[in-house]
């Protein structure tokens, strides 16, 4: 009887300990959201951002700053000034249309990363930062951005160590301000600049439309980190070079001479996030 009691006590104790023992924590997935790629210990957008209204998710025009006050100022100015520059054909080119939301209502940008759309230009550092934050993301640091751009092989360009013409949408023959204004250094807030084409090829490409310029991590691609648009980072500079910038520095291309309030047709961004 004593032996049976002892055995019963042992079994009961073992069962009790088993039920009270804490279960090991579930393994963390460490997966980035589908529109992002994991790079070491962070996630980064696959495509340059476009923007939507944070409340309604209605797409915002990529040809104007996605900020009501800045948009109104730019649009009012260029409704008049577009007729003062360039050829008659350039002067006759209308401004891009705006939705009733952007014409008549308050809005706030939220960054989205998706393929096959016109990326958002006209971003200042502050507007880029807010757009990423509204997407529950953040601006990338310079170190994160450059690391992602170089790819898993750590090369100076997304495709390798040596510059190859036309692999990325950079160093284009035409400058849109020269086409519209007969000078490449004036009128850089003109909403029509990113609509200029070279033949049948738009100077600004849709997101992901230059597959030869993809940075690769673990078999997943990040597009247009060199060329297309310059990209603001948390270090208050923009990196990568835009389509008409005469740079062959690849992932090392940077501009740090502008204030955080600066924006023009060539300034965009992409967002980063910490691993979940």
Describe the structure.
The protein is of the alpha+beta class and 276 residues long. It has a single domain (29-274), classed as paralog of FGE (formylglycine-generating enzyme) (Alpha-Beta Complex), CATH 3.90.1580. Helix content is 25%, strand content 17%. The strands form five sheets. It has a four-stranded antiparallel beta sheet. A hairpin with a 2-residue loop joins strand 8 (214-217) and strand 9 (220-223). Mean pLDDT is 91; it is low at 1-28.
Give the SSE map.
Elements: H1 2-20, E1 36-39, E2 42-45, E3 49-53, H2 68-81, H3 88-92, H4 100-104, E4 109-113, H5 125-134, E5 138-139, H6 142-150, H7 176-181, E6 197-198, E7 201-202, E8 214-217, E9 220-223, E10 230-233, E11 237-239, E12 254-255, E13 267-269, E14 271-274
Parallel strand pairs: 10-13
Antiparallel strand pairs: 1-2, 2-14, 3-4, 5-14, 6-7, 8-9, 10-11, 11-12
Quick take:
With 276 residues, the protein is α+β, with helices and mostly antiparallel strands. The chain has one domain: paralog of FGE (formylglycine-generating enzyme) (Alpha-Beta Complex). The protein has seven helices and 14 strands.
Mean pLDDT: 91
List unreliable stretches of 5+ residues. 1-28
Q: What would you say the CATH architecture is?
A: Alpha-Beta Complex
Structural class by secondary-structure content? alpha+beta
The CATH topology comes to paralog of FGE (formylglycine-generating enzyme)
Biggest sheet record: 4 strands, antiparallel
Name of the CATH first level? Alpha Beta
Distance between the termini: 56 Å
What would the principal axes of the Cα set say about the shape? globular
Number of structural units classed as domains: 1
Number of strands: 14
Computed Rg: 25 Å
Strand content: 15-25%
Number of helices: 7
Strand order of the largest sheet: 1-2-14-5
Percent helix = 10-25%
In N-to-C order, the SSE pattern is: HEEEHHHEHEHHEEEEEEEEE
